[in-house]
Amino acid sequence: MGAKQRPAVGVAIVVRDELGRVLLGKRAVGWGTGEWCIPCGSLEWGEDVRAAAERELLEETGLRARAGEVVAVHSNFHDPERLTVGIWFAGEDVGGDPVPVDGELSEIGYFDPAVPPPLAFPTDALVLQQLAAEGSG
Q: What are the residue boundaries of the structural domains of the chain, listed by start?
């Protein structure tokens, strides 16, 4: 018997502007290249989930933010070779100007969650649908 496979943990901070639009990045490498996603990354061994989300946002966009309330948690099955559980946090105390920093994203922009551009990850679509529904409530 081999070692049990376990899903990795993905983390993201949902950053919204004053109009309620959500910050998305166009993927430059890896899964879904050329499609858009909520900037995200992976939890490293021994790292706190909120600290990881804050680190990934800073590495990819140059934005500093605090990971606030949990917005959503979903299982990601889009890549059968690399299953993950994603945790999306609300961004609080966001500061800086969003720019593609580490090469993982080629563009960054704010989008209405009800009408997003083509998305790389099905679970990001679920999160954006949830945010759009909450926004119209």
A: 8-135
The β-bridge partners of 119 are 36
- On whether the 8-135 domain is CATH 3.90.79.10, my answer is yes
pLDDT at 135 (0 to 100): 78
Q: Per-residue pLDDT tens for 124-136?
A: 999 999 999 997 6
Query: Is residue 137 scored above 80 in pLDDT?
Result: no
Report residue 110's pLDDT band, with 50, 70 and 90 as the boundaries: very high
Question: What's the CA gap between 75 and 36, in Å, rounded?
Answer: 19
Distance CA 119, CA 64 (A): 24
- The pTM of the whole model exceeds 0.85: yes
DSSP string of the chain, one letter each residue: --PPP--EEEEEEE-B-TTS-EEEEEE-SSTTTTSEE--EEEPPTT--HHHHHHHHHHHHH--EEEEEEEEEEEEE-SSTTS-EEEEEEEEEEEES-----SSSEEEEEEE-TTS---BS-HHHHHHHHHHHHHHT-
